[in-house]
Amino acid sequence: MTEQYGNVTVMGIEFTNTTLEGFVDSTIRPCLEQDGKCFIVTANPEIVIAARDHPDFMETVQSADHVLPDGIGIINAAKMMGTPLQERVSGIDVMREMLAHAEEKGYSAYFLGAKEEANRKAVERAKRRFPKLQIAGRHHGYADLDDEAFVEDIAATKPDIIFVALGMMKQEQWIRRHMDRFDSGVFMGVGGSFDVLSGEAKRAPDIWIRFQLEWLYRLLKQPKRIFRVLKVAQFMMLHVPVINRIMRIFGYTKTKARGKG
Ligand code: UDP
Question: 106, 166, 218, 225: which could form a disulfide with 170 (CB 3.0–4.6 Å)?
Fold first, then answer.
């Protein structure tokens, strides 16, 4: 990982300490200009907990070139540890910036994931919003995604940007397994972003985001997310300093902070 901005480690995961604008300017643009390869993970507390519980997934997250803090829980945890991160950098915002940049420079994007309808509409809307964006291709996320021919077909479209919307873990694991097949590209897991972009799901209104209640909005819309919310609650518990210290004494968790940018 680049030390350009400094990293902040939260539960074994090194977060790039950056801003949305800074990240696009200093990482996305150069990577695309130089035909480089870059794997970006946008991690919220659920991802951090999942990585702690699944060593293989932890390896995947740690193999990324950049892990961005996509959740107020991560920002709060970093602050409590005395190593604040500059700001929340959400996957959907990075995706929008990448689309805008791709349209400006004529880069192409591949859209992998979500249900067929959401995938198709997301691409249509992206095309409408960014008319000069090149669509390298698209495919829904309910196929045999590890089939060699399937992956080769995607790589053959030579996308500059590969958005993978398969939900956390699945999307990052897919990128890690298959990015070697591609000559270049910026790879990013985007969770439910195609559902939002397509209009099939709504992002929380600004006021909910401002009061840091986006998680509650999503829970009300999708009550089955309760188990995920419990994971986030578990994460928050680990970052209440007193509880955290007791847990560290018993070797339950490791949180260490490293240099700030
Ligand atoms: N999805 C998919 N294939 C699968 C499982 C999920 O394409 O096998 C899609 C699903 O349709 C949805 C997205 O992955 O568009 C997951 O959205 P969610 O909001 O749950 O993302 P997360 O919060 O897990 O990142």
Answer: 166
Please name every residue paired with 137 in a beta bridge, in sequence order, or none if there are none. 110
Structural domains in the chain?
8-203 (3.40.50)
End-to-end CA distance of the chain: 13
Furthest-apart CA pair in the chain: how many Å?
56
φ, ψ (nearest 5 deg) of residue 152:
-60, -40
Q: State pLDDT tens for residues 126-173.
A: 999 999 999 999 999 999 999 999 999 999 999 999 999 999 999 999
Structure tokens at 148: 């060699």
- Dump pLDDT digits (tens) for 35-92: 999 999 999 988 998 999 999 999 999 999 999 999 888 998 898 888 999 999 999 9
How remote is the CA of residue 192 from the centroid of ligand 1, in Å? Answer: 5
- The pTM score is 0.85
In short, whether 69's Cβ falls inside 6 Å of ligand 1 is no
The one-letter amino acid code at 246 reads I
Contact criterion met (CB below 8 Å) for 52 and 253: yes
